[in-house]
Each structure stands twice: as C-alpha cells, then as structure tokens.
Design goal:
The complex is a heterodimer of chains A (about 325) and B (about 350). Chain A has about 325 residues and is mainly alpha-helical. Chain A has a domain at about 95-270: MetI-like (MetI-like fold, Orthogonal Bundle), CATH 1.10.3720.10. Chain A has 13 helices and no strands. Chain A has helices spanning about 1-30, 35-40, 45-55, 60-75, 90-125, 130-145, 145-155, 180-215, 215-225, 230-260, 260-265, 275-280, 285-315. The longest helix of chain A has about 35 residues, at about 90-125. With about 350 residues, chain B is α/β, with parallel strands linked by helices. Chain B folds into 2 domains: about 5-225, P-loop containing nucleotide triphosphate hydrolases (Rossmann fold, 3-Layer(aba) Sandwich), CATH 3.40.50.300; about 245-350, no CATH class. Helices cover about 35% and strands about 20% of the residues of chain B. Chain B is built from 13 helices and 12 strands. Chain B has helices at about 45-55, 80-85, 100, 110-120, 125-135, 145, 155-170, 185-205, 215-220, 240-245, 250-255, 320-335, 340-350; strands spanning about 5-15, 20-30, 35-40, 60-70, 75, 90-95, 175-180, 205-210, 225-230, 230-235, 305-310, 315. Chain B has an 8-stranded mixed β-sheet, sandwiched between helices. In chain B, strands 2-1-4-5 form a 4-stranded antiparallel β-sheet, covered by helices on one side. Chain B is globular, with a radius of gyration of 21 Å. The two termini of chain B are about 30 Å apart. The chains are: A mainly alpha (about 325), B alpha/beta (about 350). At the A-B interface, helix 9 and helix 10 of A face helix 2 and helix 4 of B.
Chain lengths: ~325, ~350
C-alpha cells in the first residue's frame, strides 16, 4: 500500500511538470494579450514596452523562462510575481483559497445531504410517483445553467434586489474569521446554487447504483436472513451503492478547489480562485495563470489519490499491492 | 401433521411482455426431518416457488395465490414483519452462487453474527462466538481467524460452507437449499452434499432440496417432486421415482444422466426441444410439444396429478393410461437408452 502511494505521488509530481509545461506552451502559442503592452499603459512608446518586456524577462527564450520558473518553485516554493498585482502569486492564491474552500465544502455537504436521501428513496420506491417527480426535477436542475440559477436566486431572495429579500446577496462574502454567522449567511445562496446541480447528479447516480445493488444476490441473502427491510436497504444496500459516490465526491471537490466554481463565484461576486484566474487570463498575467493552474492540478492529483486510497478501505476486494 | 404444507401455490409476474405464470398450482408437503427434492430444468419455477415460500417474491408486480402453511401459519398471508421473524430463524435458505450471495464488503464473521443478532437477544460477543463455532462445525479450518476474512478470500466450496453455516446458525426447522452445489466442481459438490446430509441428521431439520440434477436428489432426498413449466408432473418417493417413473418428462430426465455402466460411445438422450413459454404456455399437457408419446388428447386436455400406484404415494400427471406407461417404461429400461440403473446404483450407495 505504502509503495503504491509513493508511486502515485511520484506520478502526481510528473503530472504537475507536464501541466506546467503545457500551460507555458499554450500561453506562448496563443497569448490572450501581450503582457508588456498591457503593463506599459496607453501612450507607451515601443521603447518603453521593450524595456518592460526585458524587466519581466519575457525577451528570453521560452525554454529558459520555463526552466527558471520551475527552478524557483522547486527550490524556493516561489511562484513568481503577478504582473498586474505586483504581489507574490502564492499569497494571492492563498488569499483566494479561503472563499473557494468555504464555497466548495459547504456546497458539498449540502448536495450530499440532499442527493443521498433522495437517491436512496427514489431507488427503493423506483417507478413510483415520488421517484418519477424527483427524477424530473433533478433533470431540470442538472440542465439549468449555474449562472441562470444564480441570477434567479438573487432576483428572488437577495436582500438588495430580491422579491423576498431575506438572504445576503452578491458581493457580501465575509471570511470565517468574521464569525460563523457572518460567514455562513452570505454563502447560503451560493451554496444552494452550486449544490443544486450536483445534488441532482448524485441523486440520479446513487439511485441507479442502488437499484442495481438491490437486485444483487447478497441482498436476497440479507432478506433471507430475516433482516428488516430498512436494515437491508440502509446497511447492505447503501454500503455497496455509496462507494462509487465517494469516488465522485473526491473528484468533484478536487475540481471545484481547482477553480471550477468560477461561474458561481462570478455571479455572487465571491473573491475566490475562479475569479482570480478569470481575471488573470483577461490581463495576460502569466505567472498568476501558471500558479492557479498548478495549484488546481495539485488539488486534482491529491484528491484522485485520496479517492484511490479511500477505495481500498471501502472495498476490501481492492488491493493495490499487486498493481 | 407436516411441517410445511403447500397447497395450490400459484405465482405470476407482470412483465412488459405479459404475465408470466412462473408457478402454476403446485402442492406438496414436507415432513419433519425429511427431505423433499424438487427437480426440473432451468426456468421451470422451482426457485420462484421456494423464494415465494419465504415471501421473497412479494412485490408490486407479483401475484401470489394459494397457501403455504408452516406449523399452522400461512406464510403467504402473514405480515412482512412476522415473516422476517421466521426467515433465517425457523426457515433458512441457501443459494446457488455462494460468491454473489455473500456481501462482498462485510467480513463473514460479521455476516454470520448478524443473522444471530437479528433473531436472538444475545450480546455481540456471544454472537461472534457462535459464528466461529458454526464455521467450525461446517468444516472451515482455523475458524476463529477465518471469521475475519472477506468472502472473496475463500474458495467456492468454502464459501458455500459459510453460506450453510449462516443458514443453520439459528437452528432452523426447515432448510431450503436452492441448487446448493450447481456452482461448484464435482468433488466439492460431493463434499457439500455430504455435509448438508450430516448436518441435517445432527440438527434434525427438514429440507427442500432444489436442483436440476437427479443425481443430487438421489443421494439426499426422501421424496421427489418433478416440476415442468410451473407445475408438478410427478411426485413420489425416491425409490418409486427411480425404479418406476411414470411421466415421460421424468424418463427424459433420467435418460440425460451419464451412466458408468454403459459404454461412453452411447449418446446421452436429451429431452428435445425448448422449455415452453410461461407467458403463453401450450394448451393441454404442457409437455406435449416435446413428448415422444404424444396423443391427440394431450394438446387439449390438461392432465391432473393423480395417484398411480406405489401404495398411494406416487402421483403423476399424464394422460397415458397406467398400463401404457408401464409398458413404455419397461421397454425403455430394456433398451440401451434411458434407464435408471445408474440412479438405482447411486441410490444404494446413498442408502448405505
């Protein structure tokens, strides 16, 4: 097991190298704008632009820039300085990680609390009216774009523009250090919006898993043992059906921490990683784009690993020794 | 009074293609300490019948009629919670595929003690101890340590031993064994059958042994019911069935057993044709499209299960007259094809 983890970590590092290289190449082949021109201001002479290009080190060959960049990360954990903010990339990311993590984990808890019970009940009462209606609703939620759902929720409930102004609206994010209530209040709408589609996905996923599992021979055995149906479902059924859901959860959290909550963050004006990267792309802020992408890739690699390890514990048939 | 009495049991399932009459009016009884073998090819309704006895086919799509009386209680009409108290406690079941029948994520010791804790008011420790004792009884070596293993860590035969231990842990009065050895190789099969036989004697329970293999019931059963397309076509003691079978379908089954006393050059005689559809079963005798001795009446008139001899214990559902059948069987037995010599030999061995 230990050997397996070690090997996976090494693969993860290799993956991060690959990702950083690809980002560099993409940026140079398809730049969103010229960073030097952007920084030089409106009336800059070609001379000034050239000087800025030099000071940023952009005149050197791409390969040298890349090696330099990697060296800094590897030996000093230094991701460079953002062109536009003139602060270190790592401190920018760490500042933005709090809001994104708050949004992600809160939403994850919410979608699990909604998706799992709905999935189980729909499976047990498959083809009933309840099942059919929840499945239709969930399909609607999956299909609804996040930004649309977000705007609707603001239009309905935000305390500044809403028809029923009961919840803090966009741009009211407070860090956890401001107190749990001040923190949670403004996140209720974003959590709900972000969780809605996922809750629907998880409910449908668990439902179909659970229907398969309930047809298994070992469920028949559990019933033949005389176990009450509730226990057959909640213990023997859910124990099997939940395993793939845990996998899905790990991957989803990794992706959201990597900045994939970008739409929700934009609609609710939450200063998270997603908005940071959107901004960075807009301003051709290469060090920031690089940094955010690497951090994102790091989270995805880590959560993939966590999922695989969790799997070995959840399913005793899976052993990594002989992989 | 019999331990279990099944009277005119009918089970149908509503499917998209129509109503499947899986079990169509079967009746039999099981005496205390005795074994009833139910024999028939795949899809004849033998498994459905056994699952229905324990209420395991109850669903929105199933229609169940008749009576299944266990110690005076009708298992078909009592509420689910009462059934739960009987399942795994007074009536237990073992299934065909022991790997898929054990939960892959729970240790077997846990799965066994769970069966105890469901029905008895004992501590977890006591239940675990009982589980180990039971595993020991069914011949799992090093039972204490093995109770912490998962099902996939056992061989097929060992898994079936685990299933048997789980079924017998609450000392049931009736064990329903649904093809318990079909998924096992031949040597393991013999061991498992021997084990079931020994345990049955030791615990004094009754058994319903469901199989498609006449060789299996020859060793273990007292009485045999032959099922075809949801109905019982012949029912008798083992001796009667092997020495003077009365139904053409039974002859067919006997003819498809390999025999050591015949040259291996001699072909086995399979029952020709396919089992009939249970949505649109053939009219008259259900076996008539495949029966070599079919007469005109067979396609219109449905034979009922009637006493044909054996001191009133032998029943058969066939329109051929008793004399015709006797003559046919006598000629079959003399001819080099289906006969029951091997089964009779097996029987002698089994009877010790």
């Amino acid at each position: 097991m230990l050997e397996y983890i070690l090997r996976r970590v090494l693969w993860g590092v290799a993956m991060l190298f690959l990702v950083s290289g690809v980002i560099f190449v993409i940026f140079y082949l398809l730049p969103s704008a010229d960073p030097a021109t952007l920084r030089a201001g409106r009336q800059a002479s070609p001379d000034q632009i050239e000087r800025i290009r030099e000071s940023l080190g952009l005149d050197r060959p791409v390969f040298i820039q890349y090696v330099d960049y990697m060296k800094q990360i590897f030996f000093h954990f230094d991701f460079g300085y953002s062109y536009q903010y003139e602060t270190s990339v790592s401190s920018l990311i760490f500042d933005r990680l709090g809001p994104t993590a708050s949004l992600t984990f809160g939403a994850a808890i919410l979608w699990l609390l909604m998706g799992i019970p709905i999935g189980i009940i729909s499976a047990v009462r498959a083809r009933s009216l309840l099942d059919r209606s929840t499945m239709v609703i969930s399909l609607a939620l999956i299909s609804a774009p996040v930004f649309w759902l977000g705007l609707i929720s603001l239009y309905l409930f935000a305390d500044d523009i809403g028809l029923i102004p009961i919840l803090p609206g966009a741009g009211s994010y407070e860090p956890l250090s401001a107190g749990p209530i001040a923190w949670a209040g403004p996140l209720i709408l974003p959590w709900t919006v972000l969780a809605a589609a996922s809750a629907a996905v998880y409910a449908r996923y668990l439902r179909s898993d659970m229907i398969d599992v309930m047809g298994e021979d070992y469920i028949r055995t559990a019933r033949a043992k005389g176990l009450p149906e509730r226990k057959v479902v909640m213990k023997h059924g859910v124990r099997s059906a939940i395993t793939p859901v845990i996998t899905l959860l790990g991957l989803d959290i990794g992706v959201l921490l990597a900045g994939n909550a970008i739409l929700t963050e934009s609609v609710f004006n939450i200063p998270g990683v997603g908005r940071l990267v959107l901004d960075a792309i807009d301003k051709a802020d290469l060090p920031l784009i690089q940094g955010v992408t690497l951090f994102g890739a790091f989270f995805i690699v880590i959560f993939n690993l966590v999922v695989d390890i969790a799997y070995a514990y959840l399913d005793p048939r899976v052993r990594y020794d002989d992989l | 009074m019999s331990l279990l009495e099944v009277d005119n049991l009918r089970v149908a399932f509503d499917t998209e293609d129509g109503r499947v009459q899986a079990v169509d009016g079967i009746s039999f009884s099981v005496e205390k300490g005795k074994t009833l073998g139910i024999v028939g090819e795949s899809g004849c309704g033998k498994s459905v019948a056994s699952l229905t006895m324990l209420g395991l086919t109850r669903s929105m799509n199933s229609r169940i009629e008749g009576r299944v009386e266990f110690e005076g209680r009708d298992l078909l009409s009592i509420p689910e919670t009462d059934l739960e108290a009987i399942r795994g406690n007074e009536v237990s079941m073992i299934f065909q595929d022991p790997l898929s029948s054990l939960h892959p994520f729970f240790k077997i010791g846990h799965q066994l003690s769970e069966a105890v804790l469901t029905h008895r008011d004992v501590s977890k420790g006591e239940a675990a101890k009982l589980a180990v004792e039971m595993l020991d009884l069914v011949g799992i070596p090093n039972a204490e340590a093995r109770s912490h293993s998962y099902p996939h860590e056992f061989s097929g035969g060992m898994r079936q031993r685990v299933m048997i231990a789980m079924a017998l842990i609450n000392d049931p009065k009736l064990l329903i064994a649904d093809e318990p050895t079909t998924a096992l190789d031949v040597t393991t099969q013999a061991q498992i059958l021997g084990l079931i036989d020994d345990l049955q004697e030791e615990l004094g329970m009754s058994m319903i042994l469901i199989t498609h293999d006449l060789g299996v019931v020859a060793q273990n059963a007292d009485e045999i019911a032959v099922m075809y397309a949801g109905q019982i076509v012949e029912r008798s003691s083992v001796e009667e069935l092997f020495f003077s079978p009365q139904h053409p379908y039974t002859w067919g089954l006997l003819g498809s057993i390999p025999r050591i006393d015949r040259s291996s050059e001699e072909p086995l005689i399979p029952v020709t044709g396919q089992p009939p559809s249970l949505i649109h079963p053939p009219g008259g005798c259900r076996f008539h499209p495949r029966c070599p001795y079919v007469q005109e009446a067979c396609s219109t008139e449905q034979p009922s299960l009637e006493t044909t001899g054996g001191g009133g214990t032998h029943h058969s559902a066939c329109l051929l007259s008793e004399t015709e059948r006797k003559a046919l069987w006598a000629s079959l037995e003399k001819s080099p094809d289906p006969a029951s010599a091997i089964a009779a030999a097996e029987l002698k061995v089994a009877r010790r």
